[in-house]
Each structure stands twice: as C-alpha cells, then as structure tokens.
Design goal:
Blueprint (H helix, E strand, L loop, with lengths): L3 H4 L16 E4 L11 H9 L5 E2 H8 L3 H13 L3 E4 L10 H13 L1
C-alpha cells in the first residue's frame, strides 16, 4: 500500500479545482499518451476512456483516499488529459415529505 502523501507528492487538497466527490471526469486524450504519467494518473485516464466516472468511483477503483484522488485529477485537468463536470446544485434541500415517509417506514420496522 502506498501512502496518500507519497502518491500526491505531499500536496494536500488546497491546490485542487472545485471538485465534489460526485464530479464526473472523462478522458480527452488517448490511453497511449499516458506513458510519461505516474501509475495512478495513468490508471485514472484508462478508467475514464469513453465513460465518465465520478471521483468517488475512481477512489474506490484505485483504493486511495478521496482527497488524494482529487489532487491527482486536478493535475490531470491542468495537464489536459481529462475534463470534468460538477454536479448541478439543487435549488432546494431534501423533500420533507420524502424524509418523513422514510422515518415512518423505519419506525414500522
């Protein structure tokens, strides 16, 4: 197991784009262009070929902390390997009626 700070070269989540764990990323350069990248970055590009992946899915595939994956993805965005799309924020909070229905269902258990 590689320590997260070794993968990110000691960088923390301060240098990242505005990335949410549900942000979708997709590769815009072919996998063959990844020969100069670190293993983890090359794997991210490979996983994102043709199919958008969320940051949380990539973290699970790589078995790395979410913060470390955000740093790697930010590097790949800056290098032009991938693009991202953040989830659309909802205008309102959760539906109170739905929450009440869930609570009522749990109480009946």
């Amino acid at each position: 197991m590689v320590r997260p700070f070794a993968v990110t070269r000691g960088r923390a989540g301060r240098e990242v784009h505005n990335l949410d764990m549900l942000t979708l990323v997709v590769a815009i350069r072919p996998e063959r262009d990844t020969v100069t990248l670190d293993r983890e970055c090359a794997e991210i590009v490979k996983l994102c070929q043709g199919k958008p992946q969320s940051i949380v899915e990539l973290a699970a595939h790589l078995r790395l902390l979410l913060a470390a994956v955000k740093v790697l993805i930010s590097d790949l965005i800056d290098s032009g390997y991938i693009i991202f799309r953040s989830p659309t924020p909802t205008a309102s909070g959760p539906d109170p009626e739905l929450l009440q229905a869930v609570i009522d269902g749990i109480r009946r258990l």
